[in-house]
Amino acid sequence: MIAKRGAFIISNLTKRRQMRCMKAFLTPAALTIAVAICPVQTAAQDSDFLPGGKLVLTNATSSIEGSSGGGIATWATIGGLETDRGFGVTGHATIIELPDYGWQSHGIAIGIANRVELSYARQNFDTRNVGAALGLGRGYTLNQDVFGAKLRVAGDLVYGDPLMPQISIGVQHKRNLDGAVTRAVGAASANGTDFVVSASKLLLSRSMLLSATARYTAANQTGLLGFGSGTRHDYAIEFEGSAAYQLSRRAVLGAEFRSKPDRLGLGEDDWMDLFAAYAVTDNLTLTAAYADLGSIATFEDQRGAFLSAQLAF
Amino acid sequence: MFSVIFALAMMQQSPPDSAEPVDWDKEFGVEEQARDPQTGEIPVAEYPQSHDNAGAAPMDDAAIAAHFGGREGIRMIAARTVELSENDPRIAAIFIAHDTVRLKRTLAEQFCYLLAAGCDYTGRDMAAAHAAMGVRMADMNALVENLQQAMREHDVPFAAQNRLLAKLAPMSRDVITR
Prior knowledge:
Chain B: It comes from Allopontixanthobacter confluentis. The structure holds 2 protein chains of 2 kinds. By secondary structure, chain A is mainly beta.
Protein backbone atom coordinates (compact mmCIF):
# COMPACT_ATOMS: atom_id res chain seq x y z
CA MET A 1 0.00 0.00 0.00
CA ILE A 2 2.71 2.44 1.00
CA ALA A 3 4.82 1.53 -2.02
CA LYS A 4 1.84 2.15 -4.29
CA ARG A 5 1.33 5.53 -2.75
CA GLY A 6 5.00 6.37 -3.33
CA ALA A 7 4.86 5.42 -6.97
CA PHE A 8 1.67 7.44 -7.35
CA ILE A 9 3.28 10.56 -5.91
CA ILE A 10 6.27 10.15 -8.22
CA SER A 11 4.12 9.81 -11.32
CA ASN A 12 2.10 12.81 -10.17
CA LEU A 13 5.24 14.89 -9.69
CA THR A 14 6.52 13.82 -13.09
CA LYS A 15 3.26 14.79 -14.74
CA ARG A 16 3.39 18.23 -13.15
CA ARG A 17 6.97 18.76 -14.27
CA GLN A 18 5.89 17.78 -17.76
CA MET A 19 2.90 20.14 -17.67
CA ARG A 20 5.13 22.99 -16.53
CA CYS A 21 7.31 22.34 -19.54
CA MET A 22 4.23 22.19 -21.78
CA LYS A 23 3.08 25.61 -20.54
CA ALA A 24 6.16 27.14 -22.10
CA PHE A 25 4.66 26.24 -25.48
CA LEU A 26 1.22 27.74 -25.02
CA THR A 27 0.40 28.52 -28.63
CA PRO A 28 -1.54 25.65 -30.20
CA ALA A 29 0.87 25.25 -33.10
CA ALA A 30 3.80 24.95 -30.73
CA LEU A 31 2.06 22.37 -28.57
CA THR A 32 2.68 19.53 -30.95
CA ILE A 33 6.38 20.43 -30.83
CA ALA A 34 6.18 20.57 -27.04
CA VAL A 35 4.85 17.03 -26.97
CA ALA A 36 8.01 15.96 -28.75
CA ILE A 37 10.41 18.04 -26.64
CA CYS A 38 9.07 17.81 -23.09
CA PRO A 39 10.52 14.83 -21.22
CA VAL A 40 8.08 12.01 -20.78
CA GLN A 41 9.29 9.99 -17.81
CA THR A 42 7.82 6.98 -16.15
CA ALA A 43 8.79 5.88 -12.67
CA ALA A 44 10.53 2.70 -13.72
CA GLN A 45 10.79 3.23 -17.47
CA ASP A 46 8.36 0.36 -17.93
CA SER A 47 6.92 1.60 -21.18
CA ASP A 48 10.14 2.34 -23.04
CA PHE A 49 10.66 0.40 -26.23
CA LEU A 50 14.42 0.27 -25.64
CA PRO A 51 14.59 0.20 -21.84
CA GLY A 52 18.37 -0.18 -21.46
CA GLY A 53 19.60 -1.04 -17.98
CA LYS A 54 22.73 -3.12 -18.51
CA LEU A 55 25.85 -2.02 -16.65
CA VAL A 56 28.12 -0.11 -18.98
CA LEU A 57 30.35 -2.36 -21.17
CA THR A 58 28.57 -5.56 -20.06
CA ASN A 59 26.87 -5.80 -23.46
CA ALA A 60 30.44 -6.26 -24.79
CA THR A 61 31.50 -4.86 -28.13
CA SER A 62 30.76 -6.28 -31.59
CA SER A 63 32.87 -9.05 -33.04
CA ILE A 64 33.82 -9.14 -36.73
CA GLU A 65 31.00 -11.64 -37.26
CA GLY A 66 28.46 -9.15 -35.92
CA SER A 67 27.72 -11.06 -32.73
CA SER A 68 28.35 -9.56 -29.30
CA GLY A 69 31.91 -10.27 -28.23
CA GLY A 70 35.45 -8.99 -28.34
CA GLY A 71 37.00 -7.94 -31.63
CA ILE A 72 37.88 -11.31 -33.14
CA ALA A 73 36.20 -13.60 -30.60
CA THR A 74 32.55 -14.30 -29.92
CA TRP A 75 31.44 -14.07 -26.27
CA ALA A 76 28.41 -15.49 -24.45
CA THR A 77 27.05 -11.95 -24.04
CA ILE A 78 23.84 -10.73 -25.67
CA GLY A 79 24.03 -7.48 -27.65
CA GLY A 80 22.01 -4.41 -26.69
CA LEU A 81 21.59 -2.65 -23.35
CA GLU A 82 18.34 -4.35 -22.34
CA THR A 83 18.21 -6.54 -19.26
CA ASP A 84 15.79 -9.41 -18.75
CA ARG A 85 12.92 -7.61 -20.49
CA GLY A 86 12.50 -5.49 -23.58
CA PHE A 87 14.63 -5.07 -26.66
CA GLY A 88 18.13 -3.77 -27.19
CA VAL A 89 19.97 -2.96 -30.37
CA THR A 90 23.57 -2.35 -31.46
CA GLY A 91 25.18 -1.15 -34.63
CA HIS A 92 28.88 -1.24 -35.36
CA ALA A 93 31.55 -0.52 -37.93
CA THR A 94 35.06 -2.00 -37.91
CA ILE A 95 38.18 -1.49 -40.00
CA ILE A 96 41.40 -3.49 -39.88
CA GLU A 97 44.31 -1.89 -41.67
CA LEU A 98 46.85 -4.55 -42.72
CA PRO A 99 50.09 -4.36 -44.74
CA ASP A 100 48.54 -5.98 -47.84
CA TYR A 101 44.80 -5.89 -47.17
CA GLY A 102 42.03 -3.69 -45.89
CA TRP A 103 39.16 -5.14 -43.84
CA GLN A 104 35.90 -3.33 -43.37
CA SER A 105 32.81 -4.72 -41.70
CA HIS A 106 29.60 -3.35 -40.28
CA GLY A 107 26.46 -4.81 -38.85
CA ILE A 108 23.60 -4.73 -36.42
CA ALA A 109 22.42 -6.94 -33.60
CA ILE A 110 19.12 -7.09 -31.77
CA GLY A 111 18.96 -8.37 -28.21
CA ILE A 112 15.69 -9.72 -26.84
CA ALA A 113 15.32 -9.82 -23.05
CA ASN A 114 19.06 -10.49 -22.67
CA ARG A 115 18.18 -13.99 -23.83
CA VAL A 116 18.25 -14.06 -27.64
CA GLU A 117 20.50 -12.18 -30.05
CA LEU A 118 19.92 -11.87 -33.78
CA SER A 119 22.77 -10.37 -35.74
CA TYR A 120 23.86 -9.49 -39.23
CA ALA A 121 27.26 -8.37 -40.47
CA ARG A 122 28.68 -7.53 -43.86
CA GLN A 123 32.39 -8.12 -44.34
CA ASN A 124 34.35 -6.49 -47.15
CA PHE A 125 37.94 -7.61 -47.62
CA ASP A 126 39.91 -5.44 -50.02
CA THR A 127 42.75 -7.43 -51.62
CA ARG A 128 44.48 -4.26 -52.93
CA ASN A 129 47.71 -5.18 -54.78
CA VAL A 130 47.35 -8.86 -53.84
CA GLY A 131 44.26 -8.91 -56.04
CA ALA A 132 46.43 -7.95 -59.02
CA ALA A 133 49.10 -10.53 -58.09
CA LEU A 134 46.48 -13.30 -57.90
CA GLY A 135 44.90 -12.24 -61.20
CA LEU A 136 41.68 -11.02 -59.60
CA GLY A 137 42.36 -7.41 -60.42
CA ARG A 138 43.80 -4.71 -58.20
CA GLY A 139 41.50 -3.80 -55.32
CA TYR A 140 39.29 -6.86 -55.85
CA THR A 141 37.09 -7.05 -52.74
CA LEU A 142 35.81 -10.28 -51.22
CA ASN A 143 32.39 -9.88 -49.61
CA GLN A 144 30.53 -12.00 -47.13
CA ASP A 145 27.20 -11.78 -45.28
CA VAL A 146 26.99 -13.31 -41.80
CA PHE A 147 23.60 -14.03 -40.23
CA GLY A 148 23.79 -14.99 -36.58
CA ALA A 149 21.52 -16.18 -33.80
CA LYS A 150 22.58 -16.70 -30.20
CA LEU A 151 20.73 -18.03 -27.17
CA ARG A 152 21.80 -17.52 -23.56
CA VAL A 153 21.14 -20.90 -21.98
CA ALA A 154 22.44 -20.42 -18.43
CA GLY A 155 24.17 -18.13 -15.99
CA ASP A 156 24.84 -14.42 -15.88
CA LEU A 157 27.95 -12.48 -16.87
CA VAL A 158 27.92 -10.40 -13.66
CA TYR A 159 25.53 -11.89 -11.10
CA GLY A 160 24.92 -15.26 -9.49
CA ASP A 161 27.55 -17.82 -8.50
CA PRO A 162 31.02 -16.36 -9.24
CA LEU A 163 32.09 -19.71 -10.68
CA MET A 164 29.05 -20.06 -12.94
CA PRO A 165 29.65 -18.24 -16.24
CA GLN A 166 27.09 -16.99 -18.69
CA ILE A 167 26.76 -19.75 -21.29
CA SER A 168 25.38 -19.25 -24.78
CA ILE A 169 24.99 -21.31 -27.91
CA GLY A 170 24.85 -19.82 -31.37
CA VAL A 171 24.84 -20.34 -35.10
CA GLN A 172 26.43 -18.13 -37.72
CA HIS A 173 25.36 -18.71 -41.29
CA LYS A 174 27.87 -17.22 -43.73
CA ARG A 175 27.24 -16.48 -47.38
CA ASN A 176 30.34 -15.61 -49.33
CA LEU A 177 29.40 -13.48 -52.36
CA ASP A 178 32.54 -14.43 -54.36
CA GLY A 179 31.90 -18.08 -55.19
CA ALA A 180 34.23 -18.00 -58.18
CA VAL A 181 37.15 -17.03 -55.96
CA THR A 182 36.37 -19.57 -53.23
CA ARG A 183 36.20 -22.32 -55.88
CA ALA A 184 39.45 -21.13 -57.44
CA VAL A 185 41.33 -21.37 -54.12
CA GLY A 186 40.00 -24.91 -53.61
CA ALA A 187 37.16 -24.45 -51.13
CA ALA A 188 34.22 -26.86 -51.33
CA SER A 189 31.54 -24.23 -50.93
CA ALA A 190 30.91 -20.50 -50.78
CA ASN A 191 28.41 -20.90 -47.96
CA GLY A 192 28.75 -22.44 -44.55
CA THR A 193 27.38 -22.47 -41.03
CA ASP A 194 29.40 -22.22 -37.82
CA PHE A 195 28.12 -23.54 -34.50
CA VAL A 196 29.46 -21.87 -31.36
CA VAL A 197 29.31 -22.50 -27.63
CA SER A 198 30.60 -19.70 -25.38
CA ALA A 199 31.17 -19.20 -21.66
CA SER A 200 31.96 -15.73 -20.30
CA LYS A 201 32.28 -14.34 -16.77
CA LEU A 202 33.21 -11.04 -15.17
CA LEU A 203 35.32 -12.03 -12.17
CA LEU A 204 34.66 -8.93 -10.07
CA SER A 205 37.11 -9.89 -7.32
CA ARG A 206 39.89 -9.75 -9.93
CA SER A 207 38.35 -7.03 -12.17
CA MET A 208 38.82 -9.56 -14.98
CA LEU A 209 36.60 -10.78 -17.76
CA LEU A 210 37.35 -14.26 -19.09
CA SER A 211 35.68 -15.80 -22.10
CA ALA A 212 36.10 -19.03 -24.02
CA THR A 213 34.34 -20.20 -27.16
CA ALA A 214 34.38 -23.46 -29.06
CA ARG A 215 33.50 -23.04 -32.73
CA TYR A 216 32.55 -26.00 -34.94
CA THR A 217 33.37 -24.66 -38.36
CA ALA A 218 34.43 -25.47 -41.90
CA ALA A 219 35.42 -21.87 -42.71
CA ASN A 220 38.68 -20.84 -44.34
CA GLN A 221 39.78 -17.38 -43.13
CA THR A 222 36.39 -17.13 -41.32
CA GLY A 223 34.68 -17.85 -44.66
CA LEU A 224 36.28 -15.16 -46.82
CA LEU A 225 38.05 -18.00 -48.65
CA GLY A 226 35.00 -20.25 -48.56
CA PHE A 227 34.26 -23.42 -46.62
CA GLY A 228 35.92 -26.85 -46.63
CA SER A 229 38.39 -28.02 -49.22
CA GLY A 230 38.02 -30.01 -52.40
CA THR A 231 34.59 -31.54 -52.15
CA ARG A 232 34.52 -32.02 -48.38
CA HIS A 233 33.13 -29.65 -45.76
CA ASP A 234 35.49 -31.13 -43.13
CA TYR A 235 34.30 -29.39 -39.97
CA ALA A 236 36.68 -28.97 -37.04
CA ILE A 237 36.47 -27.49 -33.56
CA GLU A 238 38.37 -24.23 -33.16
CA PHE A 239 38.96 -22.21 -29.98
CA GLU A 240 38.47 -18.52 -29.18
CA GLY A 241 39.64 -17.04 -25.89
CA SER A 242 39.62 -13.55 -24.39
CA ALA A 243 40.96 -12.07 -21.18
CA ALA A 244 40.27 -8.46 -20.25
CA TYR A 245 41.13 -6.28 -17.27
CA GLN A 246 38.82 -3.46 -16.16
CA LEU A 247 40.79 -0.28 -15.54
CA SER A 248 37.62 1.62 -14.69
CA ARG A 249 33.89 1.41 -15.27
CA ARG A 250 34.51 2.66 -18.81
CA ALA A 251 37.96 1.37 -19.78
CA VAL A 252 39.15 -2.16 -20.46
CA LEU A 253 42.45 -3.66 -21.68
CA GLY A 254 42.59 -7.16 -23.06
CA ALA A 255 43.98 -9.84 -25.31
CA GLU A 256 42.31 -12.34 -27.61
CA PHE A 257 43.25 -15.52 -29.39
CA ARG A 258 41.44 -17.40 -32.12
CA SER A 259 42.66 -20.71 -33.53
CA LYS A 260 42.12 -21.40 -37.23
CA PRO A 261 42.61 -24.42 -39.48
CA ASP A 262 44.67 -24.54 -42.69
CA ARG A 263 42.55 -26.67 -44.98
CA LEU A 264 43.60 -24.96 -48.21
CA GLY A 265 47.35 -25.29 -47.61
CA LEU A 266 47.81 -21.51 -47.88
CA GLY A 267 49.50 -21.23 -44.47
CA GLU A 268 46.44 -19.89 -42.62
CA ASP A 269 47.49 -18.82 -39.12
CA ASP A 270 45.82 -18.41 -35.73
CA TRP A 271 44.74 -14.84 -34.94
CA MET A 272 45.44 -12.74 -31.89
CA ASP A 273 45.02 -9.18 -30.75
CA LEU A 274 45.68 -6.77 -27.90
CA PHE A 275 42.81 -4.36 -27.40
CA ALA A 276 41.68 -1.33 -25.46
CA ALA A 277 37.98 -0.50 -25.26
CA TYR A 278 36.48 2.69 -23.92
CA ALA A 279 32.82 3.53 -23.33
CA VAL A 280 32.81 7.20 -24.35
CA THR A 281 29.17 7.36 -23.28
CA ASP A 282 26.81 4.65 -22.03
CA ASN A 283 25.84 4.18 -25.68
CA LEU A 284 29.10 4.58 -27.62
CA THR A 285 32.04 2.21 -27.23
CA LEU A 286 35.29 2.61 -29.16
CA THR A 287 37.78 -0.24 -29.51
CA ALA A 288 41.34 0.00 -30.75
CA ALA A 289 43.54 -3.05 -31.12
CA TYR A 290 46.81 -4.31 -32.47
CA ALA A 291 45.82 -7.38 -34.47
CA ASP A 292 48.09 -10.16 -35.74
CA LEU A 293 46.24 -12.07 -38.46
CA GLY A 294 49.34 -13.96 -39.63
CA SER A 295 49.44 -15.21 -43.18
CA ILE A 296 46.45 -14.55 -45.44
CA ALA A 297 46.42 -16.20 -48.89
CA THR A 298 50.22 -16.74 -48.66
CA PHE A 299 50.90 -13.06 -47.88
CA GLU A 300 52.56 -13.25 -44.50
CA ASP A 301 52.81 -11.08 -41.39
CA GLN A 302 49.45 -9.35 -41.67
CA ARG A 303 49.70 -7.27 -38.52
CA GLY A 304 47.98 -3.97 -38.14
CA ALA A 305 45.50 -1.67 -36.50
CA PHE A 306 41.96 -2.71 -35.63
CA LEU A 307 39.46 0.09 -34.98
CA SER A 308 35.81 -0.39 -34.13
CA ALA A 309 32.92 1.80 -33.03
CA GLN A 310 29.71 0.46 -31.52
CA LEU A 311 26.47 2.25 -30.76
CA ALA A 312 24.18 0.44 -28.34
CA PHE A 313 20.73 1.08 -26.93
CA MET B 1 -6.99 20.03 -35.13
CA PHE B 2 -4.73 22.30 -33.09
CA SER B 3 -7.63 23.52 -30.98
CA VAL B 4 -8.50 19.93 -30.12
CA ILE B 5 -4.90 19.23 -29.02
CA PHE B 6 -4.95 22.49 -27.08
CA ALA B 7 -8.21 21.64 -25.35
CA LEU B 8 -6.93 18.15 -24.47
CA ALA B 9 -3.73 19.60 -23.04
CA MET B 10 -5.71 22.08 -20.96
CA MET B 11 -7.97 19.32 -19.62
CA GLN B 12 -4.89 17.40 -18.44
CA GLN B 13 -3.67 20.35 -16.37
CA SER B 14 -3.03 19.26 -12.81
CA PRO B 15 -4.88 21.33 -10.18
CA PRO B 16 -3.12 24.56 -9.18
CA ASP B 17 -0.68 24.29 -6.27
CA SER B 18 -2.85 26.57 -4.10
CA ALA B 19 -5.79 24.14 -4.13
CA GLU B 20 -6.85 22.33 -0.94
CA PRO B 21 -4.16 19.64 -0.47
CA VAL B 22 -5.46 16.10 -0.71
CA ASP B 23 -4.87 14.02 2.40
CA TRP B 24 -3.35 11.04 0.64
CA ASP B 25 -2.82 9.14 3.91
CA LYS B 26 -6.57 9.26 4.49
CA GLU B 27 -7.37 8.44 0.84
CA PHE B 28 -5.26 5.29 1.00
CA GLY B 29 -5.84 4.36 4.65
CA VAL B 30 -2.18 4.72 5.60
CA GLU B 31 -1.48 4.72 9.30
CA GLU B 32 1.38 6.88 10.53
CA GLN B 33 4.16 4.77 12.04
CA ALA B 34 5.98 6.36 14.93
CA ARG B 35 9.76 6.55 14.68
CA ASP B 36 11.89 5.53 17.61
CA PRO B 37 12.89 8.84 19.26
CA GLN B 38 16.42 7.52 19.95
CA THR B 39 17.34 5.99 16.60
CA GLY B 40 14.88 7.75 14.31
CA GLU B 41 14.01 4.35 12.83
CA ILE B 42 10.60 2.82 12.33
CA PRO B 43 10.44 -0.34 14.50
CA VAL B 44 10.39 -3.66 12.60
CA ALA B 45 9.04 -7.05 13.63
CA GLU B 46 11.57 -9.11 15.56
CA TYR B 47 13.78 -11.49 13.60
CA PRO B 48 16.74 -13.72 14.48
CA GLN B 49 19.96 -11.74 14.17
CA SER B 50 23.00 -13.43 12.68
CA HIS B 51 26.08 -12.53 10.68
CA ASP B 52 24.83 -15.06 8.14
CA ASN B 53 22.16 -12.50 7.30
CA ALA B 54 24.88 -10.37 5.64
CA GLY B 55 24.75 -12.78 2.70
CA ALA B 56 28.50 -13.44 2.35
CA ALA B 57 31.61 -14.11 4.41
CA PRO B 58 33.87 -11.17 5.28
CA MET B 59 36.86 -10.46 3.06
CA ASP B 60 40.10 -12.27 3.90
CA ASP B 61 42.09 -9.10 3.29
CA ALA B 62 41.21 -6.54 5.96
CA ALA B 63 43.45 -3.95 4.24
CA ILE B 64 40.79 -3.32 1.55
CA ALA B 65 38.67 -1.41 4.09
CA ALA B 66 41.34 1.30 4.31
CA HIS B 67 40.60 2.18 0.65
CA PHE B 68 37.02 2.92 1.74
CA GLY B 69 38.15 5.29 4.49
CA GLY B 70 37.60 2.78 7.28
CA ARG B 71 34.32 2.50 9.16
CA GLU B 72 33.43 6.19 8.86
CA GLY B 73 34.13 6.20 5.11
CA ILE B 74 32.05 3.05 4.67
CA ARG B 75 29.17 4.65 6.60
CA MET B 76 29.27 7.74 4.35
CA ILE B 77 29.44 5.64 1.17
CA ALA B 78 26.42 3.57 2.27
CA ALA B 79 24.45 6.70 3.14
CA ARG B 80 25.38 8.37 -0.15
CA THR B 81 24.31 5.25 -2.08
CA VAL B 82 20.87 5.40 -0.45
CA GLU B 83 20.57 9.16 -1.08
CA LEU B 84 21.51 8.78 -4.76
CA SER B 85 18.97 5.98 -5.12
CA GLU B 86 16.18 7.94 -3.43
CA ASN B 87 16.73 10.63 -6.06
CA ASP B 88 17.22 8.27 -9.00
CA PRO B 89 14.03 8.27 -11.11
CA ARG B 90 14.79 4.69 -12.18
CA ILE B 91 14.48 3.25 -8.66
CA ALA B 92 13.20 6.05 -6.39
CA ALA B 93 9.78 4.37 -6.28
CA ILE B 94 11.35 1.37 -4.52
CA PHE B 95 13.13 3.51 -1.93
CA ILE B 96 10.45 6.10 -1.19
CA ALA B 97 8.33 3.58 0.71
CA HIS B 98 11.18 2.39 2.92
CA ASP B 99 12.73 3.50 6.17
CA THR B 100 15.95 4.91 4.76
CA VAL B 101 17.22 5.83 8.23
CA ARG B 102 17.33 2.14 9.08
CA LEU B 103 18.51 1.21 5.57
CA LYS B 104 21.50 3.55 5.78
CA ARG B 105 22.50 1.94 9.08
CA THR B 106 22.05 -1.70 8.04
CA LEU B 107 23.67 -1.14 4.63
CA ALA B 108 26.70 0.48 6.31
CA GLU B 109 26.87 -2.45 8.76
CA GLN B 110 26.70 -4.94 5.90
CA PHE B 111 29.44 -3.22 3.86
CA CYS B 112 31.57 -2.83 7.01
CA TYR B 113 31.09 -6.50 7.94
CA LEU B 114 31.87 -7.74 4.40
CA LEU B 115 34.97 -5.51 4.20
CA ALA B 116 36.17 -6.99 7.52
CA ALA B 117 36.26 -3.53 9.08
CA GLY B 118 35.01 -4.84 12.43
CA CYS B 119 31.23 -4.31 12.43
CA ASP B 120 28.36 -6.58 13.40
CA TYR B 121 25.56 -6.94 10.87
CA THR B 122 22.23 -6.66 12.66
CA GLY B 123 19.87 -6.45 9.67
CA ARG B 124 17.63 -9.03 8.13
CA ASP B 125 18.83 -11.53 5.52
CA MET B 126 18.74 -10.49 1.87
CA ALA B 127 15.71 -12.57 0.93
CA ALA B 128 13.64 -11.21 3.83
CA ALA B 129 14.85 -7.63 3.33
CA HIS B 130 13.92 -7.62 -0.37
CA ALA B 131 10.74 -9.71 -0.26
CA ALA B 132 7.79 -8.09 -2.04
CA MET B 133 9.95 -5.27 -3.44
CA GLY B 134 9.76 -6.72 -6.92
CA VAL B 135 13.37 -5.81 -7.75
CA ARG B 136 14.32 -6.43 -11.36
CA MET B 137 17.83 -6.85 -12.77
CA ALA B 138 17.69 -3.33 -14.22
CA ASP B 139 16.87 -1.99 -10.72
CA MET B 140 19.82 -3.87 -9.21
CA ASN B 141 22.08 -2.47 -11.94
CA ALA B 142 20.86 1.04 -11.15
CA LEU B 143 21.71 0.51 -7.48
CA VAL B 144 25.15 -0.82 -8.44
CA GLU B 145 25.74 2.32 -10.52
CA ASN B 146 24.78 4.51 -7.55
CA LEU B 147 27.10 2.55 -5.25
CA GLN B 148 29.87 2.92 -7.85
CA GLN B 149 29.27 6.68 -7.95
CA ALA B 150 29.38 6.89 -4.14
CA MET B 151 32.63 4.91 -4.05
CA ARG B 152 34.08 7.08 -6.84
CA GLU B 153 33.21 10.23 -4.90
CA HIS B 154 35.14 8.80 -1.95
CA ASP B 155 38.14 7.97 -4.17
CA VAL B 156 37.91 4.21 -3.68
CA PRO B 157 40.26 2.61 -6.26
CA PHE B 158 38.34 0.73 -8.96
CA ALA B 159 39.85 -2.68 -8.11
CA ALA B 160 38.81 -2.21 -4.45
CA GLN B 161 35.32 -1.17 -5.58
CA ASN B 162 35.06 -4.45 -7.47
CA ARG B 163 36.15 -6.42 -4.39
CA LEU B 164 33.03 -5.19 -2.60
CA LEU B 165 30.82 -5.71 -5.67
CA ALA B 166 32.17 -9.27 -5.90
CA LYS B 167 30.75 -9.89 -2.41
CA LEU B 168 27.39 -8.35 -3.32
CA ALA B 169 26.85 -9.70 -6.86
CA PRO B 170 25.98 -13.31 -5.87
CA MET B 171 23.21 -11.92 -3.63
CA SER B 172 21.25 -11.21 -6.82
CA ARG B 173 19.66 -14.65 -6.24
CA ASP B 174 17.80 -13.28 -3.22
CA VAL B 175 17.39 -9.67 -4.37
CA ILE B 176 16.08 -10.01 -7.93
CA THR B 177 12.61 -11.47 -7.61
CA ARG B 178 11.02 -10.77 -10.97
